[in-house]
Design brief:
Structural class of chain B: mainly alpha
Strand content of chain A: 5-15%
Shape of chain B: globular
Distance between the termini of chain B: 70 Å
Number of domains of chain A: 1
Order of helices and strands of chain B: HHHHHHHHHHH
Order of helices and strands of chain A: EEHEEHHHHHHH
Radius of gyration of chain B: 19 Å
Strand order of the largest sheet of chain A: 1-2
Radius of gyration of chain A: 19 Å
Strand content of chain B: under 5%
Number of strands of chain B: 0
Largest sheet of chain B: none
Number of strands of chain A: 4
Oligomer: heterodimer
Chain lengths: 219, 248
């Protein structure tokens, strides 16, 4: 087993069975999620410019305030879920936050009133929905084989070794939930309005992927 | 007049006078770019966790995406979208970390360097992992075969609309990023080096990367991702083999 994957825990906050811990690794990821959530909160969105293919013409699109307002709400919710996933020390909580990231990512893309963009959101929704099975199944196998969902306990090595299948299921679940950037990219190809909301799709997916790399290296 | 504070204010104002941009993000992402690579530099010099540095490397994708999307320009946006699609190039990097972790049983840079003092350079022990890491560094070089994020058909890709002081900030970030990645490569695969040897090693790496960029054509986005995925597949097989041999 590899000790102290993300560095020495600097602070552990316990809420009964639940705990939150900060290592240099989780702090780095948490701060990035916080910074981008603040940016989403205070930034005005970009205004879209489209190129007319086959010519030199450009045109701008009008996007309704209500659509942008909903996407901002979803992006902030996504940022909060991502921050939770970055610092939680409990595997089940991590899976819950990851599932919430998946739901909010669908919301960010699906709010765009364009059939092509909504097709992309629908397909991502199906992938995200399917991914919850290995995601929560992986957490269940963790609990069944080790008797604990605490990452600190896994880090100490005091519990039985985690089977490879549990790690694989957890990873598969996160990959499914974190597929958003590929669908967001697909939606953007059809000119979904982007910054700063679509960035939250990419950021949250990347961050949960980075966190699960740390988690599967524990125990 | 140059050097005059009023003149500097006008310059900043001109650089922010973009009709379609998201202004806070347009500027903020430059500061974030410099911030994350300064953090990576700190982790490097303090011998911290390799996972943190490579996590920052992956977050650079988000920075590129942010650069591209913040301006509202179609060229920037397509550069940003390509940055997300080319995330496939990051997976070989994590496999190479897994191989390093299997050998050294640690992800601390200082511990990895100590391991090499006893067992010899990982460049020899884990040569395929070094190749994978080299490929990842190559994918971040300008005008390289995998530089699809700033291809000519997109003007300058994700950096098209960032000019003046914001482009200067971006280039500072890129310089810092190149230094950190080269130093990490040398530290992880060769070991502890004194400053003159480190600089010599970095110059040799740069020459090698420059020739690789100069002698290979820039691939199309789908060819680039396909090739990187093939390397990923090979690296996963290699990592599994190493795991079975080193820790059966």
């Amino acid at each position: 087993m590899i000790d102290l994957v993300g560095g020495v825990p600097l602070y552990v906050l316990e809420f009964g069975d639940e705990l939150v811990y900060f290592t240099p690794y989780t702090i780095t990821l948490f701060l990035l999620a916080l910074t981008f959530t603040i940016l989403v909160l205070i930034s005005r969105p970009e205004k879209q410019v489209d190129i007319a293919f086959g010519g030199d013409a450009y045109r701008t699109k009008e996007i309704s305030v209500s659509e942008m307002r909903f996407r901002r709400f979803m992006a902030i919710a996504c940022g909060l879920a991502t921050m939770g996933a970055m610092v939680t020390g409990d595997i089940f909580n991590f899976t819950l936050f990851t599932a919430m990231v998946g739901i909010t990512n669908v919301g960010i893309v699906a709010a765009v009133k364009s059939p092509h963009v909504q097709d992309a959101a629908y397909q991502y929704g199906l992938v995200s929905l399917s991914a919850t099975i290995p995601l929560f199944g992986g957490a269940a196998v963790y609990a069944a084989t080790t008797g604990s969902l605490s990452m600190i306990e896994l880090m100490k090595g005091t519990v039985p070794a985690v089977p490879l299948i549990a790690k694989g299921m957890l990873m598969l679940g996160v990959i499914g939930e974190g597929m958003a950037p590929f669908y967001a990219a697909k939606a953007e190809m059809f000119r979904a309005p982007g910054a700063p909301y679509v960035i939250m799709c990419s950021l949250s997916s990347l961050l949960i992927f980075l966190r699960v790399v740390e988690i599967v290296m524990l125990g | 007049m140059a050097g005059d504070p009023a003149h500097a204010q006008v310059l900043v104002q001109d650089n922010l006078d973009l009709k379609t941009a998201s202004p806070v993000l347009f500027v903020g992402v430059v500061l974030i770019a410099i911030g994350i690579w300064t953090a990576a530099f700190y982790v490097l010099v303090s011998g911290g966790s390799l996972l943190v540095i490579l996590g920052i490397y992956m977050l650079h994708k988000i920075v590129e995406h942010g650069f591209g999307l913040s301006s509202g320009s179609p060229y920037g946006k397509y550069g940003g979208v390509r940055s997300v699609i080319s995330a496939a190039s990051e997976i070989p990097l994590f496999v190479s970390i897994a191989v390093i972790a299997v050998y050294t049983r640690s992800l601390d840079l200082s511990a990895i360097m100590q391991y090499q003092q006893v067992h010899g350079p990982l460049l020899i022990i884990a040569f395929p992992a070094a190749c994978a890491m080299f490929l990842v560094i190559l994918s971040k070089m300008p005008f390289g075969p995998f530089s699809i994020v700033e291809a000519k058909e997109l003007v300058s890709g994700y950096k098209t609309e960032h000019f003046g002081i914001w482009r200067a900030g971006l280039e500072i970030c890129n310089g810092l990023k190149t230094y950190v990645l080269l130093a990490v490569f040398l530290g992880v695969f060769i070991g502890q080096l004194s400053l003159p040897w480190l600089l010599l090693g970095m110059i040799l790496m740069i020459v090698l990367l420059a020739f690789a960029c100069a002698l290979t054509p820039m691939m199309s986005p789908f060819d680039s991702v396909t090739l990187q995925m093939l390397v990923t597949g090979l690296m996963i097989i290699y990592a599994a083999a190493v795991l079975l041999v080193v820790h059966p």
